[in-house]
Structure formats: structure tokens, C-alpha cells
Write a structure and sequence with these properties.
Length: 53
């Protein structure tokens, strides 16, 4: 259960698909995370942003 509290979803900024899941310490990091990752649907490296659950 504790692992689920830290789990976040990363959504592609171009096609809006959820491609990745990561863990985040929500007490230490208050901002939304952004990573430049490969989107298999766009077939390119795009910015992936944290989304709501």
C-alpha cells in the first residue's frame, strides 16, 4: 500500500498517452515532475509530465 502512495504516472505531452510509471517522495518534492522520454506511440523523444491518479 505504501508503494502505491508514492506511485505517479507520466503522460506524453504530444499524444496524451500514459507510458511510464515512477515513484516520487511527495513530501520532499512538491512540484510536478517532467522527463524527456521516448514515446512508443509518437516514435520520438517527447516531454512526459506527471498526471493525476
Amino acid at each position: 500500500m505504501k508503494a502505491q502512495e508514492k506511485a505517479i504516472k507520466l503522460q506524453c505531452s504530444a499524444c496524451k498517452r500514459i507510458n511510464y510509471h515512477k515513484q516520487k517522495n511527495k513530501k520532499a518534492v512538491e512540484r510536478k515532475l517532467e522527463f524527456k522520454k521516448f514515446c512508443k506511440w509518437c516514435r520520438a523523444y517527447k516531454v512526459h509530465k506527471e498526471t493525476k491518479k
